Amino acid sequence: MPESLRHAFTVCICALVAAVAVAAAGAAPASREAQLQQALDGFVTSGFPGAVLLVRDGDRTYRLTSGVSDRSRRTPMRPSHRFRVGSVTKSLVATVILQLVAEGKLSLDDTVEERLPGLVPNGDGIKIRQLLNHTAGLFDYLNDARILRPYAAGKLGHTWRPRELVARAVAHKPLFSPGARFEYCNTCYVVLGLIVEKTSGRSLASELRRRIIGPLGLRGTSLPSSPQIPGAYAHGYSTQLGANTPQDVTGISPTVTWAAGGLVSTADDLAVFYRALLGGRLLGADLLRTMEAGLRIGPLDDYGLGLWRTRSLALLSSAQRLRCSAFWGHNGDWPGYHADAFVTKDLTRQVVLLVNGDVEGQPGPKFAQLARLAYCG
Questions:
Q1: How far is the C-alpha of 63 from the C-alpha of 43, rounded, in Å?
Q2: What separation in angstroms does the CA of 22 have from each of 17, 18, 25, 99, 152?
């Protein structure tokens, strides 16, 4: 073959190989990260200002964002933004209680009356264990319309003292006898916060810093007492206070939930906390098993002591349930915010989703699509 023809033939073959490679690359499925980003974008555009998603697969961690943290300024969401994480707070408060048990300063069978005399009617019949697993029977103070009334009237900075919240709750009759059944109970965790303070002689915020936040290096996590969120944060947008369109409600005082849901945190901090907790770094093996031992609260869910084992995320139907594995952790809802923070028992898979809009009751099919992909791949 003449040299010029051989050269032309070689060039043709190389071009053909390159074209085939390009075509194959174009036909290849999108990467895991690209799939997650597409699902997150779809979820946000279905009706939410923004979101942060952290997904950990083995030793690989994806940190993705979509939308904005501040609608008025159109500030892009960042993975490090802080959010109000609502009832995720309960896992940290429960951990502190169990650490006090480990130190011999409390017993799970201690009664409310023993620890906080006169605070709760029939307090001698309610054990700390029942506060932790929502079987105490106390009325949930958030179901008293007077609690949110100041915020609905525009007084977002209105401050509640913990004992005032408990007083609102016990003005209502108990829902059932202690231990009779499960009924989600924010009042229970306000009482637990007061028990932490009475037992330790320190504020709950101080005990969280000393026992969990400091040792784990959770720099974006705090239990603020004022409406201002420290550091860079995502604004929360909600219609829960009566507005027809989502309003910026970031300034609601965290005192309205305190130990039941006042925590501020980031996706990375929550991931570190739950890995440390389930990995045995915060509690001994016996107490961790006690924390995990759950009551059946639904066909796909069990609730232990401030720790939830789920295949439903409380937002998925049975048809949409997680089919890969059960996950451990907690979720949280606060006006303008939603948080999911879960990890498998073997710590190999983890998901944290933070949203600066109301998700509870209106997740939609895009949430189910995102959840199935993030949790089960």
A1: 16
A2: 9, 6, 5, 58, 58
Interatomic CA distance for residues 270 and 56, integer angstroms: 12
Helix axes 162-170, 186-200, angle to 10 degrees: 140
For 49, 70, 154, 174, the CA distances from 151, given in Å and listed in that order, are: 21, 20, 5, 26
Distance CA 157, CA 228 (A): 9
Task: Give the residue from 77, 115, 61 showing the smallest Cα distance to 268.
Answer: 61
Q: Is 87 a catalytic residue?
A: yes
Query: How does pLDDT run across 312-331, given as a tens digit for each residue?
Result: 998 888 888 999 999 999 99
260-294 burial, b at 16+ Cβ within 10 Å, e below that, comes to bbbbbbbbbbbbbbbebbbeeebbeeebbebbbeb
Q: Determine which one of 4, 46, 72, 87 is catalytic.
A: 87
Residues 126 and 112 sit within 8 Å (Cβ to Cβ):
yes
Q: For residue 34, what are its two tokens?
A: 């690209």
For 219-262, how does the pLDDT look when each residue is reduced to its tens digit (9 = 90+)?
A: 999 999 999 999 999 999 999 988 889 999 999 999 999 999 99
Distance between CA atoms of residues 27 and 34, nearest Å: 14
Which domains does the chain possess? 39-376 (3.40.710.10)
- For residue 23, count CB atoms less than 10 angstroms from its CB and return exposed for 0-12, middle for 13-18, buried for 19 or more: exposed
